[in-house]
Amino acid sequence: MLRENAADLLAFFAVAKERSFTKAAARLGVSQSALSHTVCGLEARLGLRLLTRTTRSVSPTEAGERLIQKVGPHFDEIEIELAGLSDLRDTPAGKIRINAMDHSLDLIIHPVLKNFLHKYPDISVEVCCDYSFVDIAAEGFDAGVRLGEAVADGMIATRIGPDMRLSVVGSPAYFENRTKPETPRDLTAHRCNNLRLPTNGGLYAWEFAKDGETLNVRVTGQVTFNGVYPLLDAALDGFGLSYIPHDLVA
């Protein structure tokens, strides 16, 4: 359907419903002459007369009645749906999709989720636990929880939690015959459990900072995981040292 036909059909339906150009023009907020010109233009393009006009009344022709019966209901549905959209302004509704690491889910999202769902019963929440920094917009997510330094270009970041501390941890069994590391460089002499980052496939370098200086340490070990919870289990089982969020061991 040509774009101009949509507006002209609305004009025709208004006249057919009111059975009067005068009343329809008042309803649409246009002049009677402009409305008459619009309907005549539609009839000219279709090559059919849609309205029978007399000095006393206006009524649909056979072609006009067919349009009203076949096409009119679709326009009514559109108007109903457009009116229904106003509900979204007053009552939040729909689905929110969030991309986050499993630890972020436990630490930040889960504690507020119960109250949020209770406050907004018409909103459903879908959380995808993923360590890869996916393109939030391209993958259809509304938001993503990221570490502060891992925000993609063009994204708007808002702090939703405190700075996260990481700690090097090991089990008593692991340290039975080993000396505890005193400095980050001592870690190279220990068996460490690695974290592989799915975004680039590389192993995470353990990051340390002191007095404004940073140090990245590449560690080695027998096991590698792609999540912090397996790293915690590996440390507890004595596989080696793990570098994990401090709140998991505090």
Automatic annotation (TrEMBL):
Residues 4-61 form the HTH lysR-type domain. The keyword Transcription applies. GO terms for molecular function: DNA-binding transcription factor activity; sequence-specific DNA binding. SUPFAM superfamilies: Periplasmic binding protein-like II, Winged helix' DNA-binding domain. Keywords: DNA-binding, Transcription, Transcription regulation. InterPro entries: LysR-type_TF_proteobact-type (IPR058163), LysR_HTH_N (IPR000847), LysR_subst-bd (IPR005119), WH-like_DNA-bd_sf (IPR036388), WH_DNA-bd_sf (IPR036390). It holds the Pfam family HTH_1. GO terms for biological process: DNA-templated transcription. PROSITE patterns: HTH_LYSR. Belongs to the LysR transcriptional regulatory family. This is Transcriptional regulator, lysr family protein.
